[in-house]
Amino acid sequence: MKKVKLIYNPFSGNKSFKFDLDVCIGIFQEAGYEVHPFRTLYPGDIDNHIATMDPTYDIIVASGGDGTVNIVVNAMMRRGLHTPLGIIPSGTANDFATYLGFKSGDVEDVCRTIVSTEPVPIDLGLVNDEIFFINVVAGGYFTNVSQTVDKDIKNALGSLSYYLKGVEQLPQFRKIPYRITTSKEVIEEDLYFYMILNSAGTGGFNNLSPGALVTDGEFEFIAVKGRPLYEMTPTVVKMLTGEHINDKNILYLKDSYFKIECLDDTFKIKETTVDGEMGPDMPFDMRVIPRAIPVFGKFDQVKEKAENPLLALWKNAGLPTKL
Are 29 and 2 in contact (CB under 8 A)? Predict the structure, then answer.
């Protein structure tokens, strides 16, 4: 009989996945799979479990947020497992699952997609030759808010809590000099923050890189240049609507290799985030590992982009989306 390893984080998001566990197991059993669940209890137990578990599973399914998925992916790659991966979005931030066409809370849709479609090998990023990521590595202002926002507020407000926490950093804003090295060029530019993306979005911004493909062997670098804040309103609106790539205040690059250096030793936010979790300090480099792991998703469908919650607030306040 075929086997599924179901790894789930009961503490992710609003902690509701436990109510869908029977539905999830039932769908896999109906499709002829034996389901072996693993409930994470403490930091490091997913790594330990994957390091010692039976390597012959037909599918590994991860239920949680982006951080849980990142832990599973890193443990799989360290073990040398290229088992097809299914992702059930049940966390506060589910950016990569959103790109795959899955909606948070719709466990039945995800499980039925997994048992009825073929997985597609997708690219992964590798930071400093030791940390894998499936969606994004980021640095600068705003990028550490997922680490500092209160858990109760995060569970109550979801990704909106990240935006509200990020507003607290606005009084500290100043332009920071960076050096960005790709396989083709070296650029020095003053920036506020940057993201290196595999998929189309992060932090609830689902259309940051409209042309992103997870199978093309390249990642997108998107950064906000260090311009006067009064010039930034049109740029922010464009980022909400996905029309910012050619904006004068945006630095956009595409490559399979990036090295990021901060040229200001006084800048305090040296750390990066990797799929929303704490990453290495700058400087760091990353490269793409092409088609590293097969993943289930709605790759053959036109994805309906979920509206950014900040854009919804902007519209409800009667503010224009074209400036």
Answer: no
In the structure encoding, which two tokens stand for residue 282, read together? 């700058």
> Which amino acid, residue 195?
M
Question: Residue 283, preceding bond cis, omega within 30 degrees?
Answer: yes
Q: How far apart are CA 143 and CA 194, in angstroms?
A: 8
Residue range 257-280: average pLDDT?
A: 90
pLDDT tens-digit profile of 145-202?
A: 444 444 544 444 344 444 444 445 455 668 899 999 999 999 999 999 899 999 987 8
DSSP 202: B
- What band does 301 get if pLDDT is binned at 50, 70 and 90? low
Half-sphere exposure of 260 (CA within 13 A, CB side): 26
Q: DSSP letters of 82-141?
A: ---EEEEE-SS--HHHHHTT--TT-HHHHHHHHHHS--EEEEEEEETTTEEESSEEEEET
Tell me how many degrees the CA angle 179-286-92 measures, rounded to the nearest 5.
105
Euclidean distance between CA atoms 285 and 100, whole angstroms: 26
Q: In terms of residues, how long is the chain?
A: 323
Mean pLDDT of 44-56: 96
| Structure-block tokens of residue 62 | 């991860």
Report which of 128, 158, 109, 174 is spatially closest to residue 280, judged by C-alpha positions. 128
Distance (Å, whole) CA 81 – CA 199: 22
Q: Mind telling me the catalytic residues?
A: 277
